[in-house]
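TICKET: design request
STATUS: open
ATTACHED STRUCTURE:
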């Protein structure tokens, strides 16, 4: 039987969709979360994947912007009309972080669970993704989808210097769900909105 302090504190997770996702997949304690797998883009089966690319220009030097991406909390980045932060599990620390906890910074092994507000608040969907790599030399962040979600694949956030005061952010995504309607019609629209909220929140902080 799991110790009390390893159990999920449902009262600290605000979104019912995240509750449903956890309970459906029997994620009641830290040992259950530690066993979760993430599924990245598989180049050996590239034909089944779709690609989505969106670019952003941010008025901040490369190093300052990179530091912002690494230090801004998921509570602040995933905070908008469409997406809200639910809870985060750290493989390295083997602990959960809730919306009111202090954030120690971006690192590989962080599983972030979010609520998506779809169709003007008529539907809510919980999704999970994992930060699988943080490349300081390349200024890249690699994210993959956690098992039991609607899609599998990889997101790659890349920072490129434009000038001493401006940086371009390229957000590339390779994804598949096995559903033509979801992959061709729904995913591109909702994904674009979600990542725009994310990068806009980073932009606001970096440009202060």
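STATUS: resolved
RESOLUTION: sequence designed for all positions
ATTACHED SEQUENCE:
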């Amino acid at each position: 039987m799991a110790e009390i302090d390893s159990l999920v504190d449902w009262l600290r997770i605000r979104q019912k969709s995240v509750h449903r996702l956890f309970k459906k997949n029997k994620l009641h304690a830290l040992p259950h979360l530690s066993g979760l797998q993430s599924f990245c883009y598989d180049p050996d089966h590239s034909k089944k994947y779709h690609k989505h690319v969106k670019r952003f220009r941010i008025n901040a030097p490369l190093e300052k912007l990179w530091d912002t991406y690494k230090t801004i909390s998921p509570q602040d980045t995933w905070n908008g009309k469409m997406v809200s932060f639910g809870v985060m599990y750290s493989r390295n620390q083997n602990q959960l972080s809730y919306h009111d906890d202090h954030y120690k910074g971006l690192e590989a092994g962080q599983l972030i669970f979010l609520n998506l507000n779809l169709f003007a608040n008529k539907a809510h969907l919980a999704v999970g993704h994992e930060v699988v790599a943080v490349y300081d030399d390349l200024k890249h962040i690699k994210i993959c989808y956690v098992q039991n979600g609607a899609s599998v694949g990889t997101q790659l956030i890349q920072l490129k210097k434009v000038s001493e005061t401006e940086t371009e952010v390229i957000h590339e995504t390779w994804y598949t769900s096995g559903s033509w309607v979801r992959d061709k019609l729904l995913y591109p629209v909702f994904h674009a909105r979600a990542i725009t909220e994310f990068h806009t929140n980073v932009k606001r902080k970096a440009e202060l």
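CLOSING REMARK: Helices lie at 16-24, 30-34, 62-71, 74-77, 180-206. Residues 180-206 form the longest helix (27 residues).
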